[in-house]
Write a structure and sequence with these properties.
homotrimer, Alpha-Beta Plaits, 4-stranded antiparallel β-sheet, 5 strands, about 35% strand
Chain lengths: ~110, ~110, ~110
Amino acid sequence: MHGGSPDIHVILMTCPPDQAEKILLALLERRLVGCGNIIPLVRSRYWWEGQICSDDEALVVMETTPDRLDALYAAIPEVHPYTVPKVVALQPSACGEPYLQWLRAVTRPG
Amino acid sequence: MHGGSPDIHVILMTCPPDQAEKILLALLERRLVGCGNIIPLVRSRYWWEGQICSDDEALVVMETTPDRLDALYAAIPEVHPYTVPKVVALQPSACGEPYLQWLRAVTRPG
Amino acid sequence: MHGGSPDIHVILMTCPPDQAEKILLALLERRLVGCGNIIPLVRSRYWWEGQICSDDEALVVMETTPDRLDALYAAIPEVHPYTVPKVVALQPSACGEPYLQWLRAVTRPG
C-alpha cells in the first residue's frame, strides 16, 4: 500500500552532462540520496545576464528522506560546478511502502 | 484556467527499458492511468545490498486521478518485475482544466 | 539553505518534438518561465476518443513563480498546438535559495 504524505523527497537537479555520474556518485557515497536516474541529454534554455542562453545538460531525478535534505543542500556547493544550480525537492503524496523502507535504510548516515 | 489543488497525481515509475511499453499498456488498459510518457533510456545508480549498483532503465511519467491511486498501487506487483519498484505519486498545485476533465473521463473504470 | 515551501512551481508540459524549442522560447520571451529543460524524445501512450494512441513527444520541465502561473496558463493556448495540452504545475517543498532569487528576478514582467 502507500502512505498519505510519505517520508520522501524527489529531487530534480540539472548539471553538465559529463559531470552527472560524478555528482550522483558523490551524493550516493555520502548517503545523501538513495538512488538517481540520469536523463543524459536535455536541451536547456534559460535567462542569464539579460539573455536567453542555451546549453546541453543532464537532468537527474533522485530520492532522499526528509532528515537528509538539509545535509544534501549543504553538500551541493561541494560537488556541483554551478554557482546557481537547480536543485528542487518535491514531496510526493504517495509512494510504495517497500520503496520507502528501502530508501530509509540506504540513506542512513554511516 | 487551472485549479488550486487539482484532482490529479503525476506518477514517476522506473522499470527495465524493454518492459516500459508493456507495463504502461497494462495500466492504460485497466484505466489506472490516462497517459504515460516513456523516457526510454536513463542511467540509474542506486544502493542495493550494500553496494552502489548501476543499470539502464526507463523512466515513465504518468497521470491518474485520486480515486484510481489505490487500485494503481495494488496492480503494480502484477505488472512490474521488481520487488521494490519506484512508483512515486506527486500531487500538482495546478493543471489545465481541459486536461483534468479528459483525465477524469478516461480513467473511469469499465 | 533552502525554504520550507518556496515560491516556485515546476511545470511539466508535453508537446510535439519539433515545436518544443519554439514553445519554450515564446514562454521565456514573455518572462512566463525562467528556464526549461527539453527532454527531446519521449514515447507517449494515452487514451483518446476511445482508443489507446501513441505518439513521439517532447517533455519539457520548466520553472516559474506563483505570480506568473495564471499568465502562463493564459498564454498556453496561444503557443501550444494541442486542444488539451498537458501543463501540470508541481509546488516544491524545498529549493536552493540562490536559484529562487534568480528565478524571481528573471520572471519579473517587462
